[in-house]
Design a protein that fits this description.
heterodimer, A: 254 residues, mainly alpha, 8 helices, B: 501 residues, Actin-binding Protein, T-fimbrin, domain 1, 3 domains, four-stranded mixed beta sheet, three-stranded antiparallel beta sheet, 11 helices, elongated, Atg6/Beclin_C_sf (chain B), coiled coil (chain B), Atg6/beclin_CC (chain B), phosphatidylinositol 3-kinase binding (chain B), Atg6_BARA (chain B)
């Protein structure tokens, strides 16, 4: 026989049971609320995209009019990569693809690899790439906070000197801490920070390469959160895709 | 009860001091080895073919010549021949006998039964027992050697003797002295018990004989019988009534059992229905709770986002004591607070990006003459003459004209944008009291009477100038947030929400 632990008649229980209409009403309310929330997220992330049209200008000879060719071109991270004239400036997504700092985009390539003879140009390339990566880190940080997603690899925004954290085993952390004090975030001894920049061309780019890889993993995490797949190994392609999906109608009404 | 020859021989070997020709038996109670001595004196009772070649004196000598006797001896003498149930008395040889000087001293193991010549009468078999063989005494001298006397004849004699003893006593023979004593004690106790029972029976008989019987007369007997018969009839009637009631109750029970089964089935179905309903109800409640929890989380998140402004969030301007901060990067330094150039550069980068974003938003309406180039921590400023200056350090504290010019042009750009904001307010008919008004007046390189130059300036004054500049930038930012669609109006969102609800 079935367990007899409820002597109450079902008819009496129906009185206290929430009707299905009430539940469907709650579900409808939740749907509306989530739509409003997504609209708000869409709007705010749109502002983040608008905040970083980021034209990074090359040094030009004195007297050259920078204003002549810009025509107020206003490109955001979410827009397709348009190539502005070389002398005027470069869109954020193109900066990372510049030949002299192309290595920053991919994990296996050297960062800030010298492609030109002059040292000053190389230094400017490093500055430019560090700035772009810093802005990307800031954008990802803002998007993650608006989507309410705790990043797997926390970001520490510091302009052109931004960092990505990664958890390491305590023994390894201890050995790294003893070897290189600057690399350890003192607030959490288990977190090791990796720079999203290279100080100078003589520096070892391995840590920066790993930092870019972790930044890519963060963008991948955000893409997965909204139900999309990562499109390759480029941070900026993923970031562009993330903003495109969020700004589409399917994000609000999915 | 067959004594195997091998075991007898083995016992002899093991003993080391016992003649191997002696027949050996086991006590039927404790299974200890027994050696029987003095068999040869009775061989004259046996037929000639069964007589062994071993004389008595040699056997006697072998037994009596032992220096130490470890086990018991049973000597069947004239006196105890007739005692079939009693235990024979311990013979004088049962102790430790005196050793004769000419005999070798040997240890004797196992029990011994010494049969003196007078005990031969028990071996006389009748025609019925012995199968017609009559054992008669011979005139042979016991001391002389017996050519026909062998081991087999000795065993036969003993075997026969023990069979007779067994049939007489109903107890397996042979027994050692210890076992005999135990058996004797047991039998005496049994005799005592039987005697006690006899006495009890006799007492009972006497008591019965003394009792007087009250014999009924014929009439009384008939009355008594009639009375009993009537009582029997009544009881039979009562039994019939009880049986009738029993059959009625049985049929009623069957009916009730059927009903009970129906009720049990009904109850079981009810319990199943109840459980399934409750399961549905609980899952429904859980689903509802989950939906409500999601609603609560979404509500909190939405409220948080509604209160958040992207520009204010991305460029949070505040202060850390005397030093102004943007996005928690300190802009400025004091003699006692050595702020790293990396932090100052990052702060300038954020300020440059903010002003550039606001200026770019109103372009071309706002004549963006002084260009700001945000590039992370390495911003630059291009003046109206197209000269570009670096807005980042490290720089020489005594001679940093390019950095000073960059800061001155940044300040000029901020002032121009503030003027544009005021003109826009006038255009939109905003009352003068609600129009933008910078808290610290900007005049050339000065902000609220403090120069922004780093060269030949006190760090305290430079830091104060930067703090005032950030304060002005914050006011411009608030004006921008309030007057542009860069941030979506929260009012429309609220209306949409209320209409949905």
């Amino acid at each position: 026989a079935a367990p007899r632990h409820h002597p109450t008649h079902p008819a009496l229980l129906f009185a206290s049971a929430p009707p299905k209409e009430a539940l469907s009403g709650e579900k409808a309310r939740l749907g509306d609320l989530q739509r409003l929330l997504r609209m708000r997220q869409q709007s705010m992330i749109g502002q983040v995209a608008a905040l970083y049209p980021v034209k990074v200008f090359h040094d030009l000879p004195h007297g050259r009019n920078l204003n002549s060719n810009t025509n107020g071109a206003h490109r955001s991270l979410s827009e397709e990569n348009g190539t502005l004239p070389e002398e005027n400036g470069t869109h954020l997504l193109n900066v990372i693809k510049l030949p002299q700092i192309h290595a920053l985009t991919f994990l296996g390539w050297q960062i800030g690899k010298q492609r030109r003879k002059q040292n000053d140009i190389c230094e400017k390339d490093l500055q430019r790439s560090a700035a772009v990566l810093g802005y990307a880190a800031h954008a990802i940080l803002l998007i993650a906070s608006y989507l309410h997603v705790p990043l797997r690899y926390p970001l520490h925004f510091g302009g052109s000197r931004s960092y990505v954290s990664d958890c390491l085993p305590s023994a390894e952390t201890a050995s790294i801490a003893s070897a290189e004090r600057t690399c350890i975030n003192m607030t959490d001894p288990k977190l090791t920070v990796y720079p999203l920049f290279v100080e100078c061309q003589e520096d070892d780019p391995t840590k920066a390469s790993y930092a870019i890889y972790l930044l890519h993993k963060d963008t991948e995490q955000l893409l997965n959160y909204i139900g999309a797949e990562s499109s390759g190994r480029r941070v900026f392609d993923n970031l562009q895709e993330l903003i495109r999906i969020i700004q589409s109608d399917e994000y609000v009404y999915s | 009860m067959k004594p195997p020859a091998s075991s007898a021989a083995a016992a002899g070997d093991k003993g080391g001091g016992v003649d191997p020709s002696l027949p050996r038996f086991k006590c039927q109670e404790c299974q200890r080895a027994l050696v029987v001595v003095g068999v040869e004196s009775f061989t004259d009772k046996l037929p000639a073919h069964a007589v062994s070649g071993m004389n008595v004196s040699s056997v006697q000598g072998s037994v009596m010549g032992a220096s130490r006797m470890d086990n018991s001896y049973v000597v069947l003498s004239k006196q105890n021949r007739s005692h079939s149930h009693g235990i024979p008395p311990r013979p004088p040889s049962a102790g430790i006998p005196r050793a004769e000087p000419n005999q070798p001293t040997r240890a004797m193991e196992g029990s011994y039964i010494v049969l003196p010549p007078a005990a031969a009468s028990i071996y006389k078999t009748s025609a019925s027992e012995g199968g017609g063989a009559q054992l008669s005494p011979t005139s042979m001298n016991p001391g002389s050697p017996l050519p026909g006397n062998n081991f087999h004849s000795s065993v036969t004699v003993l075997k026969r003797a023990f069979e007779i003893a067994t049939s007489q006593t109903q107890i397996e023979q042979p027994l050692c002295l210890d076992c005999m004593r135990l058996l004797s004690d047991k039998m005496e106790k049994e005799i005592e018990d039987v005697n006690t029972d006899n006495k009890a029976y006799e007492a009972c008989l006497q008591r019965l004989e003394q009792e007087t019987y009250n014999i009924l007369s014929e009439t009384d007997f008939q009355k008594e019988r009639q009375k009993i018969e009537e009582e029997e009839k009544k009881l039979k009637a009562a039994i019939e009534e009880a049986e009738k009631q029993y059959s009625e109750i049985c049929s009623e029970m069957k009916c009730l059992e059927t009903k009970s089964k129906q009720f049990e089935e009904l109850e079981e179905r009810y319990c199943h229905d109840l459980n399934s309903f409750q399961f549905q109800w609980i899952s429904h409640q859980e689903e509802r709770d989950a939906v409500l929890a999601k609603i609560e989380v979404s509500q909190v998140h939405l409220e948080l986002l509604k209160r958040t402004n992207v520009l204010n969030d991305a460029f949070y301007i505040s202060h850390d004591g005397v030093i102004g901060t943007i996005n928690n990067f300190r802009l400025g330094r004091l003699p006692n607070v050595q702020v790293e150039w990396d932090e100052i550069n990052a702060a300038w980068g954020q300020a440059a990006l903010l002003l550039h974003t606001m200026a770019q938003y109103f372009f071309p309406k706002f004549e963006y003459r002084i260009k700001i180039h945000p590039m992370g921590s390495y911003p630059k400023v291009t003046d109206i003459n197209q000269n570009t200056y670096e807005l980042f350090g490290p720089v020489n504290l005594f001679w940093s004209t390019r950095f000073d010019k960059a800061m001155t042009w940044f300040l000029t750009c901020l002032q121009e944008f503030a003027d544009f904001a005021v003109s826009l307010d006038k255009e939109n008919n905003v009352p003068p009291d609600k129009s933008l008004k910078l808290p610290y007046k900007i005049e050339g390189d000065k902000v609220g009477s403090y120069t922004i130059f780093l060269s030949f300036n006190k760090l305290d004054n430079w830091t104060k100038a930067l703090k005032y500049m950030l304060c002005n930038l914050k006011w411009v930012l608030y004006w921008f947030i309030g007057n542009t669609s860069f941030a979506p109006p929260s009012g429309s969102l609220h209306v949409a929400q209320s209409s949905k609800g």
